[in-house]
Amino acid sequence: MNLQRAYILLAVFYSALIVVGLIALTLGAGSLVSIAQLLVGAVAVLGLWGYILGKGFMNSHSWRPFTALLAIGVVLQLLAVFTMPVTNADITWLLSGAIFSAMLLAILYRYGDRDQELWASDEEIEEGAHLGQLLESQPELVVEKQEADRQAKVRMVKTGDRYRASVTRRYGEQEESFEKSFKRPSTLAYFIQTFTCITLQDLRAQHGNDKAPAA
Questions:
Q1: Letter string b/e over residues 110-132, b meaning 16 or more CB atoms within 10 A of that residue's CB
Q2: Among residues of the chain, what percentage have pLDDT more than 90?
Q3: Among 119, 120, 115, 111, which Cα is nearest to 46's?
Q4: b/e per residue 161-185 (b: at least 16 CB within 10 A)
Q5: pTM of the full structure
Q6: Average pLDDT, integer, range 81-107
Q7: Distance between terminal CA atoms of the chain?
Q8: How far is it, in rounded angstroms, from Cα 153 to Cα 146?
Q9: How far apart are CA 105 and CA 18, in angstroms?
């Protein structure tokens, strides 16, 4: 059994748990806490399927905070089991919720990493591929833009298997500089468009006619 198949079986198992939990609720078992657990569990299973299938569900920026909340929930459920007077039924819900949530934490944390093409738009993937080709043929790319009282300058280089962008941006009299590096050129394209006034169209206009070396 390969890793992908194991992940699929895990997702099927978790999906079945959600269905079983829903059936238990309709039969009168559980409480308000159980309903909250099922709702959180359903979101977690959605993220698990997204990670396995390479699809972006919801938003990349929501998954790591959700993972942190899930971890806090695990701790609170375990504390409730060992420190509060709860019924046997509630103990079953709390323990099962804590155990199965804990198993998802690492996967959902990785799923929330924005530096993956599953979170990139088609335009960002296309422009990232273009930037990647250019950075294979040139040691450095520079893109600048002046827009009203805003100005931005981005220097891009490829170091090993990572893409590094050094940004200088000015707004009125204020100026700041920062640097980020990425595994995916599509994330580089996203970063430039999100954190500067430079658009993907500006990138294409200034470097669209450059040619990458022949393979």
A1: ebbebbbbbbbeeebbebbebbb
A2: 53
A3: 111
A4: eebbbbbbbbeeeeeeeeeebbebb
A5: 0.81
A6: 81
A7: 36
A8: 9
A9: 17
